[in-house]
Design brief:
By secondary structure, the chain is of the alpha+beta class. It is built from 3 helices and 10 strands, in the order ααββββββββββα. The protein has 2 domains: 74 residues, Helix Hairpins; 135 residues, Cupredoxins -  blue copper proteins (Immunoglobulin-like), CATH 2.60.40.420. α1 runs antiparallel to α2. The two termini are 32 Å apart.
């Protein structure tokens, strides 16, 4: 998860998030090179005392500064489109979870199991245990198996919400009356935190999201206990 004074992204916990980090570094390097070139040209033009009578009318320069930006845009657009299609790809999910946004908590329904459904409320500050994070911990976590495609159906009951978990590279709007879907694969066990990313009222800051990724055997034990409690 994020920590104070962090400048970069959170550590990737899914293949899609790893691709997003690589694309970010790729685009940032291009921006850095362009900025360096422009700064050098500005400094050179301001500080030099030399003049060139052909600099104001040069077909070669105009061709270069027309074609070169087009090539740079292609180098940015192609990887971006590839990742967009990867993020929309949902093939044979092993588990489907329906996330429903409310004011101001989340509900989860495991549609592959008839009786696994629960509400997820933020744990108040006075009830936190040592080691738990203020404004991020919930009383019931969304538990998923690792290294398995997980489909999340996202909707809302009242106003607009947004289900977002940065470490997994997931962000999907929750719209009343509409069912959106996204998918992720948790590449390692861990607890991943997110928050509602759409302003949804007075307690918008107090409806966190916690996804706990566990090995398949542990997930089977958890689902068995949930079915017994139901």
């Amino acid at each position: 998860m994020a920590h104070p004074s962090q400048l970069g992204f959170q550590d990737a916990a899914s293949p899609v998030m790893e691709e997003l980090l690589h694309f970010h570094d790729h685009a940032l390097m291009i921006v850095f090179l362009i900025s360096t070139l422009v700064l050098y040209i500005i400094v050179a033009m301001v500080s030099t005392k030399l003049t060139n009578m052909y600099i104001l009318d040069s077909q070669e320069i105009e061709i270069i500064w027309t074609i070169l930006p087009a090539i740079i845009l292609i180098l940015i657009a192609l990887p971006s489109l590839r990742i967009l299609y990867l993020m929309d790809e949902i093939n044979n999910p092993h588990l489907t979870v329906k996330a429903i946004g409310h004011q101001w908590y989340w509900s989860y329904e495991y549609t592959d199991y008839q009786e696994i459904a629960f509400d997820s409320y933020m744990v108040p500050t006075q009830d936190l245990s040592p080691g738990q994070f203020r404004l991020l911990e919930v009383d019931h976590r969304m538990v998923v198996p690792t290294e398995a495609p997980i489909r999340v159906l996202v909707t809302a009951e009242d106003v607009l919400h947004s289900w977002a978990v940065p470490a997994l590279g997931v962000k999907m709007d929750a719209v009343p009356g509409r069912l959106n879907q996204t998918a992720f694969i948790a590449s390692r066990p861990g607890v991943f935190y997110g928050q509602c990313s759409e302003i949804c009222g007075a307690n918008h800051s107090f409806m966190p999201i916690v996804v706990e990724a566990v090995p398949l055997k542990h997930f089977q034990n958890w689902s068995t206990l949930m079915l017994e409690d139901a």
